Amino acid sequence: MRTKEDIFWGKQKKKGVALNEVQRQAVVNTGGALLLLASPGAGKTTTIIMKIGYLLEVKGIQPARIKAVTFSRAAAEEMKTRFKRFFPTLALVDFSTIHSLAFEVAREHFRKNRLNYQLIEGSQNQDKRHILREIFKNVTQENITEDQMDELTTYISFIKNKLILQEKWSEIDCNVPAAAEIMRKYEEFKSASDKLLLDYDDMLIYANKAFDQDRELLGRYQQLYDYILTDESQDTSLVQHYIIEKLVRKHGKLCVVADDDQSIYSWRGAEPSYLLNFKNVYPSATILFMEQNYRSSKEIVDTANVFIKRNKQRYNKNMFTHNPAAHKPIIIHSLTDYKNQAKYLIEEIKKLDHSCKIAVLYRNNSSSIILINELDRAGISCYIKDEDKRFFSHWVVEDILNFMRLTYTDKRIDIFEKIFTKVSGYITKQQMEAIKKINNNESVFDNLLKYAPLQEYQLKQIEECKETIRLMKGMAPLAVICTIRRKLGYEKALERMCERLGFRKDYLLGILNTLEEIAAGLSSMEDFASRLKYLETVMKSSKNNKDSWVTLSTFHSAKGLEFDRVYMIDLLEGIIPTRSDIEQKKEGKPEAMEEAVRLFYVGMTRAKTHLELLTYDKRDHEKVSESEFVASVRNIISPPVVIPKINVKQRAKVSPMVSYNSNAIKNANQLKIGSLINHQSFGRGKIVSITSSNIDIKFNGTIKTLSIEICLTKGFLEPA
C-alpha cells in the first residue's frame, strides 16, 4: 500500500503536479462529508483526480466502490480521460452523470414493480416536443414557436427539478400562455398511456421516489459505494441533491466540489442555497476553500474578486493568485454604435497571432450571427461553442424571405397566407378565407379589393401595400428589409404580437437588425437568400473547428473553459443584467440579480492575460445604457477619489492644506486583513480584503472599496 507522500511526490515527479496545502487537505480528507469550494482556475479537476487516486492507492478502496457523479456527459468523459492520464495503470472508477444514475435506479424500480415504460426524449413515436406542440395548439388555438417551446420545456424542467407541487405551478413565471395548464395536460397524457411515458427529468423524480418508497432498493444502492464524489455541484438541482443525500446517508463519505460564485443555472432548477446550508444537512462536514487561481493575471483575479463581492448570498472567499501582472489586462471599450462592435473585434483579432486563444463571449446566442458573418467576410474561421439553431429557421427570418418572394409575384396565395396578418391593413382570417376560394391567378391584393368584405379604412392601406411590394422588386436587400419593417408595417405588427403572445420585442427586433447587417453590401434578394443559407452551413460546420484559435460562446457555455484573451460583448443594461433582473431587485428579490453578477464573473474569469469589456451608446438609432456591471468594474480598476465630507462648523477650522497626521498609516505593509483602522471620514472599520490597488473596509456593516494609494498619500487611515 502506498503512502500519501508516495502519491504526491510521484505525481509531482512524473506529471509535474504539485498540490498546494489546501489541495492536499482536500485529497486526504476522506473520513466524512467534505465541501470543497473551488474558485475559478483553482485546479479542481486535478484535485478530484488526485483524490480518487488517493482513495484507490492509499485507502485501498476498490474502483467499483467509488462513484464520481458529474453534471454532463462531456464532463464525465473529460474526467475519465484525465484520470487515465494521471493513473494509467489503475482501473477506472464509476464515472457517470446524475441522470444516468437516476435512470439506472428508476429502471430497476420499474422492473421490480413490473411497470412498462418508454422514454419520450427524441423518440420517433412519442416525442416530448411533439406532444407539447399538440397540447399547446389545443389549449391556445395557436401554433407554438420554437422560442415558446424552449421556454415551455425549461419551465417544465424547472418545476420538476425543484419538486414544486401542482397547486403552485401557476405561480412560476413563464411567458408561454397557459403554461401551467399545458403542463398539467402533458402529465395527464403521459399517465393515460398504456406505458409509463418518461422525459429526462422524470427519471430524477422516479429515482428519488423509489429511494423513499423502497427501502430494500435504497439499501442495495447504499451498499454499492464506499465513497461518492460530485462535481460542479453548484449546478445540481434539489431533487438531484436529495438522491445523493439518500445514497450517502449510512456512511456519510461524500466529497462535494462546487463554487457558489459560479452557480448560473437557477432557471434550470439549480439550487445554490443548498451549498450555503450544507452544514444543516451534514453537520460534521469539513468545508475547504480552494482560493488560489492558477489561470489569470493578478489584475484580472483581483478585479474579479472584488466584483463578486457585490453578492451577499455567498461564502466569504478571497480569490488570489501568484501569477504576475499583465500589460493592460482589463480594457473597457465604449463604441458609438452596436454596428461598430463586430468590425472592431475583427480588426483586433487580425492583429493577433494564431497561437493566441481568443474567446468572444455574449449573454444571448443571437449575438453570434453578426460575428459569424463578419468573421467569414474577413476569412477567419471560428469554433462556435453553442450554435444558434433557431436563427435561420426563425419565423421572423421566414417572414422577411416571404415578403421578398412576394415581390417576384403577388399572385402566390400560399406565401401571402403566411404573412397577411403582418402588413398594414389589418386583414382578418375571414377576409383571407374569402380570397382563398378564388383561383383566378390574379394579384392577392386585387382579389382582396374586389372580392373580400373590407372596411373603408382598409382600401387605401391595401392599395398602398400592393404598390410598395411592386416598388420593392429590384431593390437592394437592405433597402427591402427597411421597407418591410417600416413602410409595410411589419415592425408594428411585431409589437402587437409581443403584447398579445408575450414575445420579447428586443429579441425580435434584434433578429431584424442582424438581417440588415447580413444584407449590407449585397445587391440582390437572391444574394441575400444565398448568404443566409451559406452562413447556416458555416455555423453548422464550425462544430468541426474545435482547434480554431477563435471561439464564440455564451457566458453559460464558457464555464470551465479558459482563453488567453476574452472579449465580453453587448454589455448593456437590459441584456446583462436583464430587465427582469433589475425589476426583481427593485421588488426586493435580489436572487436573479445575484445570478447575473455570477454570470458576468464567470465571463471575466475565463481570461488568462487579457480581458476586454465592450459596450456602446446606440442600438437601432436609440440610446442605450452600458451595463451597471461595466461601471462596477471601471470603479474597481480606477476607484473614484473619496473626498471627506466636512460640515459647516468644521469648515472654518480646517486649513485648505491637507494637515499632517503623525499617526497615519504610510506603508501598505501595515495593512492586514482583519486589522481594525480609523478612517478620517468613515470612522472605525475592519479590513476585509486587500488587492494590489484597492482595499475593502467594513464600516458599520457597509463595505467600502478605497484606493490604497490615495489613502496612504492623503493620510486617511490610522491604526484603531
- CATH class of the largest domain reads Alpha Beta
Looking at the overall shape, the CATH architecture of the largest domain is 3-Layer(aba) Sandwich
Strand percentage lies at 5-15%
Helix content estimate: 40-55%
Structural class: alpha/beta
Main beta sheet? 7 strands, mixed
In total, the number of strands is 20
Number of domains: 5
CATH superfamily of the largest domain: P-loop containing nucleotide triphosphate hydrolases
Mean pLDDT across residues:
89
Give a verbal description of the structure.
The structure is a single chain. This protein is α/β, with parallel strands linked by helices and 720 residues long. It folds into 5 domains: 4-102 and 206-292, P-loop containing nucleotide triphosphate hydrolases (Rossmann fold, 3-Layer(aba) Sandwich), CATH 3.40.50.300; 127-192; 307-382 and 548-637, Rossmann fold, CATH 3.40.50; 395-521, PCRA, domain 4 (Orthogonal Bundle); 648-719, no CATH class. It is built from 31 helices and 20 strands. The strands form 4 sheets. Strands 9, 10, 11, 12, 13, 14 and 15 form a 7-stranded mixed β-sheet that branches. Helix 2 packs across helix 3 (44-57), helix 20 packs antiparallel against helix 21 (456-472) and helix 22 (477-486) runs antiparallel to helix 24 (505-519). The two termini are 55 Å apart. The relative contact order is 0.09. Residues 648-660 have low confidence and may be disordered.
In short:
With 720 residues, the protein is of the alpha/beta class. The protein contains 31 helices and 20 strands.
Main attributes?
Rossmann fold, 6-stranded parallel β-sheet, 31 helices, 720 residues, 14% strand, alpha/beta, 5 domains, 20 strands
